[in-house]
Amino acid sequence: MKHVAFAALLLLGTAPMLHAQQVLPLYKGTVPNSKPSEVKEASVTLANGGIRISNVVQPTLTVFLAPADKATGTAVIICPGGGYARLAIDHEGYNVAKRLNEMGVTAFVLKYRLPNDQSQLDKSTAPLLDAQQALRMVREQATAFRINPSRIGLMGFSAGGHLASTAGTHFAQPVDTKAGNTSVRPDFLMLLYPVISFSDSLAHAGSRDNLLGKNALAAQLQLYSNELQVTAQTPPTFLVHAQDDKTVPVLNSLVFYQALTHHKVPAEMHLYPEGGHGFGLHNQTTQDDWTERLRNWLAANGWLAK
């Protein structure tokens, strides 16, 4: 059990020497909601050096421990985007984790399963199952990771933002009913140009079709339109989007913010006139740095206090 061994290293104080890239399996033994198949994980390196992963069969968490002299006890699990077809694991994962480390936040990059009928019994629930297990695992091993179990946030980009907002609105009834009583509610959400709604007017069709199929029932479309699932228990949320996003309309963030406001859930939103979709850490059209806005928000809520 690699993640148990790593937890032991942490308790002994030797694991921090590993810095990052310690990869932990998300599950012990058989991965739930999986079936035998010929599906094999694929990784592609783009011309610009970016890494895209697809056909995930074995979900993992890659650990980026905050430096001991900066560590605040807060943790963030990151869900990269990619339309539920692939994962932009560096651009919206590893690079973001390193930035969070600079703030004293321990980060975990989630390599979650992408919907696949060949390797999953129910492709619509596989990503959420993995996100909830990640929250459960980090919370249960909080002492080993030297984090506060009540200061664990979930961050998502694009379709990863849909996954994070799903986890932030569907925690009352976890997908895996046999996994124990550990809470799978994130303590806060950070959604970057997120897919939120599966309505015809707002949906990113690729994400919707990949998760639910082209002939999804109206009830499923409503269930996964997360602006309709917000309650007073939805975690405080930080949102970032560009007005000229032609892939995921900015109205996705606006309707989620509106629902949060309606239910009196604290929320902060930063909108840029330009930037398009998928800008990751750096919106090249502005000198403003949204990660500094994030740092301010985290600090204002006490999550950067040691």
UniProtKB/TrEMBL annotation:
Looking up InterPro entries in the UniProt record yields:
AB_hydrolase_fold, BD-FAE-like_dom, GDXG_lipolytic_enzyme
Domain (BD-FAE-like) ranges:
63-260
Q: Which GO terms describe its molecular function?
A: hydrolase activity
| Gene3D superfamilies named among the record's database cross-references | alpha/beta hydrolase (3.40.50.1820)
Keywords annotated in UniProt: Hydrolase, Signal
State the source organism's domain of life: Bacteria
From which residue to which does the signal peptide run? 1-20
Q: What is this protein called?
A: Alpha/beta hydrolase
Which organism is this protein's natural source?
A: Hymenobacter defluvii
